[in-house]
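Order emerges. One example.
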Amino acid sequence: MIKLNLALACSVGALVALMQASPVAAQQAINLTVAAGQPLRAVPQLEMVSTYFIPEVNKRMAASGLDKKYKINWREAYAGSLLKPTMVLEGVRDGIADIGFEPTIFHPDKLPLEQISFMAPFLTSDVPLVTRGVNRLHKDIPAYKAQYEKFGVVRLAGVSSDDFALFTTFPVTKFEDITGRRISTAGAALQWLRGTPATPVQSNMTLYYNNTQTGVVDGFIIFLTSIPGMKYPEVAPYVTRVGFGAHYASALIINRDVYNRLPAEVRAIVQQVADDWSEIADKNQNALADKAFASVKTFNKGTLHTLSREEQEKWANAMPNIAKEWASRLDKQGLPGTKALGLYMQEMRGAGIKPVRDWDKK
């Protein structure tokens, strides 16, 4: 009897131990690789993927008790260590990375509808407003979502860059000052140089510093918050707020199969945090832009200027109507370009914006 009770006690003890250990044993590992082509220091919203998005997902998993069922093993790969800036869309599609910070500006051919704010410059430097305008298009026009579906990815959220400015080796106080100058920028922003007396040069933010220092170009166009990380005024000390405005420029994307395989409750947290990341990052941008612009004075020969409304109108009206051209081109491809342009301009005017040029009208 003693031996029987002892055996029973051992069995019960083993069962209790097994039950206590079961939550740990049942914990499912979820491996997620996050990649970007740019360095964290260059793009504040990207930096917040590392400092906010990832830790906040972990925090909410723990708060909901899901960390007892699932453990996300994050791997981070930035500055092109896994995917170059122009290869994020395909890299996430192909599973090289699970989540990517996709610069939509680099893909006017693959993500044509996402270029809308760049096709309608001189509107607003209000970063959250620009993203809200594009989010409305994603909500109201199915073709926006379909762009990403074509590449086997899901757009979790988008963010806009802050005010784009002109960085030059020479002073710019009026539109005519850019005559004969070689100005570089990336992707769709090259359209802003059409019709102007400057010579456009295709490039990207990783090349601006060296190309200006060596005299390949006389200046470039980039968002103001790039200053702290990239030190651009060291080689281009004249920084001019032309009025180009803030622009929708990047999306946080995830491989569609990975997204669908995530447990529903984990997927919900990832989506919620992505939405919050977008809102918080955008709100942060305006203050950072003003601070970055003021910091130009701390650089040797750093000089600030803001073009007057009159000079902005000269620039905008010298350009062909790139917005209508874009809309018409997409219409012919079976995409709702004209509809998107109308809704976007409607959203801007509804927020009280008085466009320097009414791109949907003339």
